Automatic annotation (TrEMBL):
Transmembrane segments: 16-42
Name of the featured protein: DUF305 domain-containing protein
Coiled coil location: none
Lineage per the UniProt record: Bacteria, Bacillati, Actinomycetota, Actinomycetes, Micromonosporales
Pfam entry (one): DUF305
InterPro entries (alphabetical): DUF305_CopM-like, Ferritin-like, TAT_signal
Keywords annotated in UniProt: Membrane, Transmembrane, Transmembrane helix
Domain of life from the UniProt record: Bacteria
Organism name: Spirilliplanes yamanashiensis
Stretches assigned to the DUF305 domain: 51-213
Signal sequence extent: none
Amino acid sequence: MHDQNVDPAPPRRRGLVVLLGVAGAALAVAVGLSIGLAMPVLTAPSDDSSDVGFARDMSTHHAQAVEMSMLGVRQAGLEEVRRMALDMGLTQQAQIGTMRAWLKQWNVPPTGTGPRMAWMRDGGMSHDADMADQPAEDAPMPGMATEAEMARLGTLSGAQFDALFCDLMIRHHAGGIEMVDAVLRTDPEDEVRELAEAIKVGQQSEINALTQLKSRLSEQ
């Protein structure tokens, strides 16, 4: 008489089934991870996309604001200007780091071979008319200070510095918002949209604060 409770599968067979099950589960996890890791590469913006152009050009745009801000920390007359300058510089330097990380993740170089701001021209910006007569490599960036303006800012201190700093940074931020609006019209990647919207909110708030400060300075 046979014992009905005896497992019909020999121990070695059961072990093989378990081993195959574990191996199959591990393979599924590995495949899932591979797909997950590959997706950012497979869906990354192309080198000539507005996402990549924005990341490159806004990094350059931000770099000048950081330079102006560091001058403000050292040369501003009012403590309020120094505090604002420090906050702007730290914020925009952090954003530069984020955008450079994107470019690395997207496997594109930090600088392109095409003309600057081409992604904005393709978007039909009003800025295009001013850029039409410019050599591609010299295409202006919205709101940027000229070399002469930066040199002059570097020679000033106190109230004179504060006044010019407000003027240049208000214009600079307005140009940055123009670039943000341009990329937002192109249905960018989620991370680009989120940062662009944050830049717009932050810089519009700073424009308001700088405008009020400039008004007070003119009354002194």
